[in-house]
């Protein structure tokens, strides 16, 4: 057994724990995941252990299930952070990787729906990197 890993939302209204033993880490580039994440992709962990336990704030978890597709999402109704949910098939608990407090133990990693990558993600020159905001960024 690998032990438990904790996670939660940005505002602290919710927290959970789950066994730190994930079958997959998928970086999904599909249009649905891009729209939900507001980014180039979603990074989701898939657990078959089904050991998700809400430590705090389960009442703040809102679930969305698309009416026409096998697609679900859960989020904190206070801050909007993505949270774990049971997949439509019932085979997996899907955990947004960014919701975890530590490093997940993952068996397999893959990028999926790469044919749906956003056109602004393709063919870009490497971006500058900074440890914080660049000095030219006026916050």
TrEMBL record:
Keywords: Lyase, Metal-binding, Zinc
Domain CENP-V/GFA: residue ranges: 5-121
SUPFAM superfamilies: Mss4-like (SSF51316)
Molecular function GO labels: carbon-sulfur lyase activity; metal ion binding
InterPro entries: CENP-V/GFA (IPR006913), Mss4-like_sf (IPR011057)
Keyword Iron found: no
Pfam families: GFA
Family affiliation: Belongs to the Gfa family.
PANTHER family: CENP-V_GFA DOMAIN-CONTAINING PROTEIN-RELATED, GFA DOMAIN-CONTAINING PROTEIN
Name the UniProt record assigns to this protein: Uncharacterized conserved protein
């Amino acid at each position: 057994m690998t032990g438990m890993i904790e996670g939660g939302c940005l505002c602290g209204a919710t927290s959970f724990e789950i066994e730190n033993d994930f079958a997959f880490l998928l970086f999904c580039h599909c249009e649905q995941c891009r729209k939900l994440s507001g980014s180039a992709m979603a990074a989701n962990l898939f657990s078959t252990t089904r050991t998700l336990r809400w430590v705090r704030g389960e009442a703040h978890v809102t679930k969305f299930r698309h009416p026409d597709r096998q697609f679900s999402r859960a989020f904190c109704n206070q801050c909007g952070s993505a949270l774990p949910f049971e997949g439509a098939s019932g085979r997996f608990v899907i955990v947004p990787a960014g919701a975890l407090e530590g490093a997940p133990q993952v068996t397999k990693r893959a990028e999926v729906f790469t044919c749906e990558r956003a056109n602004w993600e393709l063919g870009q020159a490497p971006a500058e990197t900074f440890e914080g905001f660049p000095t030219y960024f006026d916050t």
